[in-house]
Amino acid sequence: MTAQPEALDHDYGRPWAEQEWTQFQQVQGMVNHWDRPGWTPGRRSYHWLVMLGHVRALTALATRCQEQLRDLPNLDLVPAVGLHITMQRLAFTDEVSPDVVAAAVNEVRRRCADFPAIPVEVGPLAGSPGAVRLSVGPPEPLRGLRHLIRESIAEVCGPAALPERASRFVPHVSIAYHNTPADARPLIQRAASLRHLPPVATVIQSVDLVELRRDGHQYITSKLAEVLFLS
Q: Mind giving me the DSSP string for 166-214?
């Protein structure tokens, strides 16, 4: 049976979304998202992603926001098929062998064998210094999923393979990446005008290991494995 979205407690509000918006309002300058350590021409990586391009209501929301952002400079819009939540990088492809990748997938499957499907709301619009993005919450179940993925990577590859701190994880769906350092105020003002658009409810039922590569200012993914959750 396919899990159905459940309405979240709207009376309680969305504190995760309000916190992300407050932080975005404090950003003074946007940065170049594509200027990231380790990414050299032609290099690829293995990433655990929650792919969301199949959620029609979400792609409609993202497209509606993108239409209102299109005239702003320095933005690379994310195609609908590429909408995702980044959970954790496993490694660059030149850092691990196929056997290690297979072992990592098996370990995630083992640890997530009883993991339940995750009802979430995606939206409203917010951002970060390098992107315009939709908030996702409640974040705790997704942080729990990421913790299991990180434990799996540490088990197979060793703790040194996890440079990022788990506490920094803020679930989100990027709809546009910023490609040049610039004043953040015009983008924040435009995002504010779109925050009235209601969020989309959906249920996350799987996480994918993908091979991620760059094609200009766009990410291209090739799915290598899927880990399904309990419905």
A: GGG---EEEEEEE-S-EESHHHHHHHHTTTTSPPEEEEE-EEEEEEEEE
In a domain, 8, yes or no: no
Predicted local confidence at residue 201, as pLDDT: 97
Nearest to 81 by CA among 63, 105, 64: 63
Alpha helices in 77-184 (DSSP H): 98-111, 139-157
> What was the pLDDT predicted at 101?
97
1 domain-assigned: no
pLDDT at 162: 82
Domain count, the chain: 1
Q: How far apart are CA 168 and CA 166, in angstroms?
A: 5
Low-confidence ranges of the chain (pLDDT < 70): 1-12, 166-167
CATH number at residue 69: 3.90.1140.10
The boundaries of the domain holding residue 55 are 15-228
Residue 5 lies in a domain: no
Query: In this structure, are residues 47 and 210 in contact, taking their beta carbons and an 8 Å threshold?
Result: yes
Residue 7 inside a domain? The answer is: no
Name the pTM for this structure.
0.92
Residues near 85 by beta carbon (within 8 Å), at least 6 away in sequence: 49, 50, 52, 136, 142, 171, 172, 173, 204
